[in-house]
Specification:
Elements: H1 5-35, H2 39-65, H3 84-93, H4 97-129, H5 132-163
């Protein structure tokens, strides 16, 4: 059964959501790389920025292949929502460089997992609507997002140690 125009349009909306997200993340990764003091983490952030540029172009290509209009807007990349008193605590935490780096790493981990979920959903939508070549591409992107989330997770102990150096135990 052919894809209805409503399903087609909704799919393009979801693709444009991913495109706006990737567009924003290119700039975000560039800024994060500039702020990170560790060379290996900086290098990985820049490598992932380059992958993100490829993701953005792949999503744009999918939209154009459907005769859709690709958005030129960027999503907003921001820290998790912190209402009320918690927001004040977060502001105080961010005044310490190590705390800011730790909070940024936690937010980056959340973003990478969110991207993984977005591409899992897009892959399923694409398969359901009869675009297996899109689904294959989204699964490839998903693997890269998962790898980046794993990289961030593996460096979390260092970020915690930098923010909270171990205290020598009393004898």
């Amino acid at each position: 059964m052919p894809v209805s125009s409503s399903e087609h349009d909704r799919y393009i909306l979801h693709l444009n959501h991913a495109l706006a997200m990737e567009s924003a993340l290119v700039d975000h990764l560039e800024k994060r790389a500039a702020a990170v003091p560790k060379p290996d983490v900086r290098q990985q952030l820049l490598r992932h920025r380059d992958e993100t540029i490829q993701h953005r172009e792949a999503v744009r290509d999918c939209i154009l292949s459907l005769a859709g209009e690709a958005t030129s807007t960027k999503a907003s990349v921001q820290a998790p929502i912190t209402p009320g008193v918690l927001g004040k605590v977060m502001t105080a935490l961010e005044s310490e460089k190590e705390d800011k780096l730790l909070m940024d790493a936690l937010a980056d981990f959340a973003v990478e997992n969110y991207e993984d979920a977005v591409y899992a959903g897009l892959s399923l939508i694409a398969r359901n609507l009869g675009y297996p070549h899109h689904a294959t591409r989204f699964e490839e992107i998903r693997k890269q997002e998962r790898a980046m989330a794993d990289f961030i997770s593996s460096h979390q102990p260092d970020a915690v140690r930098d923010a909270f150096p171990p205290i020598a135990q009393a004898a």
